[in-house]
Design brief:
This protein is about 65% helix and about 0% strand. It has nine helices and no strands. The termini are far apart.
C-alpha cells in the first residue's frame, strides 16, 4: 500500500494515518508501535504520548470512520420507493468509497476487538433505521413489522456488499448503474404486495 503524504500535518494526525495504513496492511496485532512511529516520521515515545496503549490508536481510528447513514431527506422521492432506495444505496456507496481503507481495517479487526465490533453493530442499527425511514416516508406505508423486517434485510445486504467489496480489486467492483437493482426490486415488490 502506498504511504499517505503527511508532510506538514500535526504529529498526532501523522500517527493516526500511519496506524490506519499499517493496521490495514499487516493487521492490528502484527503492527508494532515502532513501525507506526517510523511511518509517521515521529519518535516512538510520541506515539505513546498521544496514545497510551496501542488499543487506544484503534479506538481513535474507529471514531474517525465517517457516518454511513445519510440524511434521508436527501434521497427520498415521495411516492417513489424504488428511486428512494436506489438513492440511499448510491449515497452509502459514495460513503464507502471515501473510507475504504478504514472500513477494511474495521471489518478485519471486528472479531478480536469488542470496541470495533460495538461500533459496527451500532452502525448497522443506524443503517436499519435509515432504510426504515426511507421506506416509510417514500412509500407512505405505516411503520410495521413487515417494514422493519424489510429494513433489516436490506441493511444486511448493503452491509454484506460493502464488507465484501473490500476484497475486490477496484476494477471488479460493481458499476454505479448496478447498485443492487435485483435486491431492491425484491424488497419493493414484497412491500407493495
Amino acid at each position: 500500500m502506498a504511504e499517505h503524504d503527511t508532510e506538514g500535518e500535526p504529529a498526532r494526525e501523522r500517527i493516526l494515518v500511519a496506524s490506519e495504513e499499517l493496521f490495514a496492511e499487516l493487521g492490528f496485532d502484527a503492527t508494532p508501535t515502532s513501525k507506526i512511529a517510523a511511518r509517521a516520521g515521529v519518535p516512538k515515545g510520541l506515539v505513546h504520548y498521544y496514545f497510551r496503549r496501542k488499543a487506544d490508536l484503534l479506538e481513535a481510528l474507529v471514531e474517525r470512520l465517517p457516518a454511513d447513514v445519510v440524511r434521508c431527506s436527501d434521497v427520498i422521492v415521495p411516492g417513489d420507493l424504488p428511486a428512494s432506495l436506489d438513492g440511499l444505496v448510491a449515497a452509502l456507496d459514495r460513503s464507502q468509497d471515501d473510507s475504504y481503507v478504514l472500513s477494511h481495517l474495521l471489518w478485519r479487526e471486528a472479531d478480536t476487538h469488542s470496541a470495533v465490533r460495538d461500533v459496527l453493530n451500532r452502525r448497522f442499527d443506524e443503517l436499519v433505521a435509515a432504510v426504515r425511514e426511507v421506506i416509510v416516508t417514500a412509500s407512505g406505508q405505516p411503520d410495521s413489522e413487515r417494514v422493519r423486517g424489510a429494513a433489516r434485510l436490506l441493511a444486511a445486504a448493503i452491509g454484506h456488499r460493502h464488507a465484501t467489496a473490500r476484497h475486490a480489486p477496484d476494477d471488479a467492483r460493481p458499476p454505479a448503474a448496478d447498485r443492487m437493482d435485483a435486491e431492491l426490486g425484491v424488497v419493493v415488490a414484497a412491500l407493495q404486495a
